[in-house]
């Protein structure tokens, strides 16, 4: 059987001739799936002629010659192959996939010769109509291209189609403000940035999540901090897939203060006695406490937690006067004076006797 190869859109012309006698009738028939369609007839010869041939014209054609009634005709067959470029006949819809899930895409194409199908995305290539990625990762998101190609004549023919794959994944914090040390009244600016799909929303909480802060977005600001703003701030990014958070510790430094109601007040002491005076303080960083005697000389002290005390031994007049407690840190200083005065025994009483000698004069004896 002869085979004719022809490109879609061209014309087909095949002449079939037979001789008798008597002159036979010539019939062209198209044989498909066992059925017969009569195409052309003639006496002695017939031409199978198809203008602008289409892919559905491909198949087996039979030329029949017959000149004796009720007898089977003499036949010859020919095959017609029609070349045509690829066409995408089925393509998966765009996909929305959760990270870790299966990506499965399908692309079917018709054409002759049968097209090759190639999937591509960047440097990724895979052959075949079905694309399977067992566990999607976020970098799999994007356009996957299905290319169907074949070759005939002197040319290569191809067609492309695209499927966009969206990979959803829970947020991860990619940038955040490091732990902060700020001075009281300074501004505070905290930020965190997150990657996630869908785009994450943000929640800010303070102190182990017990306080939700009145802010939206990935920034939190305080224009003038005070010591009560110190603590642990948590930025949480969340979407419908999951959440992630980062903790930021904030230390607020403030200058010292001395609590007068918890510190010693001015006092009096007998000579030779001992007295303990103290001052109670606060500040961050913890202040350094320096005690000054009345002569402005420093003296040693006992400091525990936020209280400092010294012992005053009043052995002489130099031990009396103003004692100063000074608290100092990098944010500033505060001081308080405590005055120690001396208690004295009364002097020996002095008596004065008045003697009357007359009405006009007096005599004093003492």
Automatic annotation (TrEMBL):
Gene Ontology biological process: homophilic cell adhesion via plasma membrane adhesion molecules
Presence of the UniProt keyword Translocase in the record: no
Recorded superkingdom: Eukaryota
Ig-like domain boundaries: 1-81, 86-166, 171-253, 256-341
Record bears the keyword Disulfide bond: yes
Annotated Pfam families: Ig_3
Alphabetical keyword list: Disulfide bond, Immunoglobulin domain, Signal
Protein known as: Limbic system-associated membrane protein-like
Organism: Actinia tenebrosa
Primary gene name: LOC116287908
